[in-house]
Sequence to fold (799 residues):
Amino acid sequence: MSSRAEPAVAASGVRKRRGPLTWVSRDGLSTLVFLLPLLLIFGMFSWFPILRSFVMAVQHTNLVSTPTFVGLNNFATVLADPLFGTAVANTAYFALLALIFGYPIPLVLAVIMSETRRFKGLYSALAYLPVVVPPVVGVLLWKVFYRGGPNGAFNSILGTIGLGPIQWLGDAAMAMPSVVVEATWAAFGGTVIIYLAALLSVPPELYDAAEVDGASIWQKVRHVTLPHLRGILFITLILQLIATAQVFTEPFLLTEGGPANSTTTVLLLIYQYAFGSSLGGHFGEAAALSLMLAAFLGVFTAVYFWLTRSWSTES
Amino acid sequence: MTVKPNLRFKALAMVVVAMFAASACGSSTTTASPSTTSAATPAPTSATSAAPTPAATHKPVTISVGALRPGATQEAVDALNLQISEFNAKYPWITIESQEYNWTGPTFSAELAGGTLPTVFNIPFTDGKGLIAQHQIVNIDSRVRALPYVDKLNKNVLINGQDKDGKIWALPYSAYGMSLTYNRTLFKAAGLDPDQPPTTWDEVKADAKIIATKTGVAGYSMMATGNCGGWQLTTITNALGGRMEAVGADGKVSATVNNAQTKAALAYLHGLRWDDNSMGATFDYNWGTINAAFAAGQIGMFTGGSDLYTAMVQSNELVPADYGVTIVPLANDPNAGVLGGGNLAAVNVLTTEDQRDAAVDWIDYYYMQPLLTQDGAVANAQALKANNQPVGVPALPVFDKATYDQQQLWIKDYTNVPTAQMTPFTSKIFTEPVLTEPLYNTQDLYKTLDPVVQAVLTNKNADINALLDAANVAVQKIIDTPAS
Fold:
């Protein structure tokens, strides 16, 4: 019987593969070679810098002179820095505003778009368009829109109804909300696409049944759509929180952390430690704060998943 | 035996991947540790320049020079190429590669840490001591001591490139005084006389208000980011008679950024911004963006270096007729002075001994000869003028005033900048006291003051005393922290 013969053949095959020549002839070498670029690139640009940051966090180094071991001094220096508290508070504020502005908007848009009968593809493309725009280009575009004078794009529009001009980026109270609006614009398209895909998984007969029962649009969303999107919503929420904790491009290009440090985020502070001084020399503090942020996000994510482990289970 | 198509593909792919890996791993880098000793350049044979030894005795060497700013016009590129070809006529064994370079705090530290600086680059006076203390540039003392003119350098200027033992690590090649740059066209449009620029801070305030009211653009602007806010605040503080640092009899350095003059300077800016509404709507200018805005006719007046004309022509297409420059107004205070500044030419530590020799040859040719010899000055001026680059921009003497005057005479026929428009500055600067920048942790001091300037310009209720007291504590902490 063939079914009995197979194990013997397989066992014989296992013995043959042990030889290096057999291994090579069985594509082992080509597998390794094809894996090599991946290993090299990830090793060089991801794993090595991660390992290196652990070392640098306990060193005083400017990357030119010989580094010196300083133990946990860099962590103490960062914690004692008055800007550390400012940066953490600003980052939390950014995350909160991004949650308020950025979390519900893609969901609402996705639901509306899924309900439309025509031009669905066009709406999807329009929603995704900001994601296609390179981040730096997008930010610089918004910087022009945000110009504080009466001739700025937004201020011109406001001027037509007798409002403004507003110092969008030149006022400490307005700067962070302005940064968040730009960041939301830049990122919401991707989330809309994720929600749209998830909405396809909702069985249409559930909507039909709800309609037969006389459910309104809101009741359909509340009792059919949202329960089915729960898993995706939890994932996008944690991804958004992680992304907002690492926000850098927008405040760096729009405000450079100003005015008066009102938009200095944790990542911007890390950058300033490393590159803020032309003489360098604060790479240890930068690495220490990076590790602190990574540790916080790791713990935060673990706690989040632990707390929501029952909620996120598909019903 | 025939090879199956998929195996052939795999074999080919493996070869390509292996070649890629080999090239990635095998790219050679020529590095050398910082050296404090070096072979001297050939002995000088003339009074002003060390003559090169015959080319046959030299090995070919390639160096990169950071002589062009990013965004430089084709004419600026052509002018440099002409200078390089003239250099090669004298030093045929040296290949010069131009690398775009512009000193800014963040980009410089990134390039320094990443090892991507050109072989020869410039740094501001403010960074000389720090880079020397950390051995992040090459000790070129023995090489430049072989040049016959080093002893003639202005001691107050040379000190910026020396260590505590007097060894030279970087060579000063330009010096400037802070000025009040103003737009003559806007002055005329506002009904002001561009030949009579303001001579007191009160006049600056009054003129700024008139320009803002009559033209709709900012009458006065202030840099506030990229360490420039602190720099310009120091400029006004010095002009009012204040100092940002003090050195006690015991040698202890104290931060004094909360001095009365700095408070007055910030109160003055607060008045321009909030009482007069004379400062427009942009409060995050740095060195590059304020130059661009000025060249675009968006700014009536601002404080900056007296040498800005060159950068604005090279990168911002400045209309020469717009440009006016005068001395920073000085208060009636015996300590009031014009903040000075300048640039040092330095050599990258990631270089071979031959490259370091070649780097000093380039520094001598490109930076120093135009200041010292008629041939050098004329050749430089001709190359610049032939490519419509500015010749005759106001500067301060790197050597002595007589040498400076002589050099100005040599290039007189080639001068193509509107010198008459620069007279308000050039007629006064040589009789006013020029002050050095704060000597200790200068850029960190400036950086700490950036948010203070920003706060005053963006928050009407900013508490100047509290801001400066907090900044003083922060600067003192930086000063007290030992350098790595």
User: Anything to note?
Assistant: The longest helix of chain A spans residues 28-56. Chain A is about 75% helix and 0% strand. The mean pLDDT of chain A is 86. Chain A touches chain B at residues 27, 29-30, 33-34, 36-37, 40, 60-65, 68, 82, 147-150, 152, 165, 167, 169-172, 255-256, 258-261, 271, 274-281, 283 (CB under 8 Å).
